[in-house]
Automatic annotation (TrEMBL):
UniProt-recorded name of the protein: Membrane protein 6-pyruvoyl-tetrahydropterin synthase-related domain-containing protein
Transmembrane segments: 6-25, 58-82, 88-108, 141-158, 178-202, 214-234, 274-295, 302-322, 334-353, 365-383, 516-538
Native organism: Companilactobacillus kimchiensis
Keywords for this protein: Membrane, Transmembrane, Transmembrane helix
Keyword Membrane: yes
Length: 540
């Protein structure tokens, strides 16, 4: 099946990559900017990416301190082998689509002990409409990567609480991979796990042993994620930041959601779409009503939880009561469709295999499953082509090509998200490279220079104060002509220094210093992942 999964992954990306450009999805520019930043960091020898010194308006933006980057590393490694950035991007997507098929197969095989169900689930989940929307119309690369690892987290949760609690390392690995991909998805999944426990706790046994197992999973997950968590926590405890893009939580119109699902619509919302689960999972949702009595207790629970997660996307769900809670971080309730997609894919797999397959007729099973694969891929192709006939996804000012990426001329935006509160009133000036020398406003020329941002100044006298248009973080550093100097935080939340001697010529290199905690967190994560992999493999 590995060859089939690989071929499917290549075909799925070929359908999207038809013009040698990256289409104008909702968050495309932002995530391409992240990839550019990571690529530059690694090429400059930075092991743990932190501030951006190559793009994001050259303000030393701490994008990689606040946005998980670890699971994007394979895409950067691919870009080192493939020089065309557009081809490298789609090759990276194909890689993760392949990994998604493999993880999905593994998870369903462990859950059902059926190879047929494992293949069917991999096809349905891997080619699901919401996941196409995630990677294509929304271009939310981080959330898509999270959906790759989502089945593993749910399998680990199921084992830990309701089956073999000794398999808690699966939960630790799954949740860590979510956290290293997308914080908001991790919040959503953790919230939904709490809901499951509230509703289904009576189905569990050996409560004390399971409690110990989940505590071990939480600790191990935190250690495995330390490479991101430690620098992240160090920064948010250093200074105040505003909430990430606050939105009023509001569900979708129920009728329009069902209509969009029925037509397998993968367009952008700007083109009139409502993000949805697609026709296959809508059929599974409906058929589940009729098959409910034949389901065992586990499948009944999965179906009801799928319905609940789907309802949570709708206007009828009382989202207003969560507006002033940490859950408002999720921004858009439609994000719960990633859970609906996973759970309904399990239900669709169960219904499909019960109706169409038979353990004693392998040839028939091969034909039936092959037909399913063709249908799923066909729906993928139709949905992509439909979206490519819409205005906003294909507008020239919404798309990017290799030349634009290589010139690093994208305006990524959203700089207020990971800039300190003190910087918020001054972001326009900071982006415009407005600084202050001895209190006098002036434009300061900032240039990228590998792992540093470089500013060149002449005729500096001892006692000169300089307020640079570069954001100050906990471990920001400045060197003048190669010598580290002390720095402070200005009233704008930017890097400020006071010159201690005269300089006829001064080359200022502004960067981010990896302290002991950063190195320690990297080592802890590597050791924890080594243990996790060995533990999971040997327990198999």
């Amino acid at each position: 099946m590995l060859v089939i999964y690989l071929i499917l992954s290549i075909l799925m990306t070929m359908v999207i990559n038809t013009k040698g450009i990256i289409w104008g999805g909702d968050d495309m520019v932002y995530h391409i900017g992240r990839l550019i930043s990571l690529d530059s960091s690694f090429k400059s020898g930075v092991i743990m990416p932190n501030i951006s010194t190559s793009n994001f308006s050259l303000i030393g933006y701490g994008i990689n301190l606040f946005y998980p980057w670890v699971t994007m590393v394979p895409m950067i490694l691919i870009s080192l082998l493939i020089h065309n950035p557009v081809t490298a991007y789609y090759s990276g997507l194909a890689f993760f689509m392949f990994i998604s098929f493999c993880i999905s197969h593994y998870v369903m095989k462990k859950f059902s002990n059926s190879n047929t169900q494992a293949i069917v689930f991999s096809l349905i989940y891997g080619l699901a409409n919401y996941r196409l929307i995630d990677v294509f119309s929304r271009a939310d690369l981080a959330e898509y990567l999270a959906t790759v690892f989502l089945p593993l987290a749910f399998l680990g949760f199921y084992e830990t609480f309701f089956r073999d609690y000794r398999k808690w390392p699966l939960l630790a690995a799954g949740m860590s991979l979510l956290l290293l991909s997308h914080i908001l998805t991790t919040v959503i999944v953790a919230f939904f796990f709490i809901i499951i426990l509230i509703l289904c706790w009576f189905m569990a046994s050996d409560y004390q042993k399971r409690l110990k197992a989940v505590l071990a999973a939480i600790l191990t997950s935190a250690l495995a994620s330390a490479v991101f968590l430690v620098p992240f926590l160090a920064e948010i405890t250093y200074q105040k930041f505003q909430q990430l893009s606050p939105y009023v939580l509001k569900g979708e119109n129920s009728i329009k959601l069902l209509q969009a699902s029925l037509t397998n619509n993968a367009n952008r919302t700007l083109d009139g779409n409502i993000y949805n689960i697609g026709i296959i999972l809508l059929i599974a949702l409906i058929l589940g009503i009729f098959f409910f009595k034949s389901f065992n207790k586990t499948y009944r629970s999965i179906y009801l939880l799928a319905v609940l997660s789907f309802v949570m996307v709708m206007q009828i769900f009382p989202w207003s009561i969560f507006q002033k809670t940490p859950l408002n971080l999720i921004q858009f309730p439609f994000r719960f469709l990633l859970i609906t997609t996973l759970l309904l894919a399990v239900i669709a797999t169960k219904i499909f295999t019960d109706i169409f397959t038979n353990p004693d007729t392998m040839l028939k099973n091969f034909f039936v499953v092959g037909t399913l694969g063709i249908v799923m891929l066909g729906l993928w192709v139709v949905s992509v082509n439909g979206a490519l006939h819409q205005k906003y996804l294909t507008a020239p000012d919404q798309t990017v090509n290799a030349k634009i990426i290589q010139s690093k001329s994208l305006y990524e935006g959203y700089y207020e998200q990971y800039s300190p509160m003190a910087s918020q009133p001054y972001m326009k000036d900071i982006e415009g490279h407005i600084g202050y020398i001895n209190g006098q406003k002036t434009v300061i020329n900032v240039k990228p220079n590998g792992r540093f941002l470089t500013v060149k100044l002449n005729g500096l006298k001892s006692g000169t104060t300089i307020d640079l248009p570069i954001i100050k973080y906990r471990n920001s550093s400045v060197a003048i002509n190669g010598q580290r100097v002390n720095l402070t935080k200005s009233f704008r939340g930017t890097v400020a220094i006071k010159v201690k001697q005269n300089y006829q010529y001064a080359k200022l290199n502004i960067g981010y210093h990896m302290g002991f905690l950063a190195w320690f967190s990297l080592i802890i994560s590597l050791l924890t992942w080594l243990w996790l992999v060995l533990e999971i493999v040997f327990k198999e």
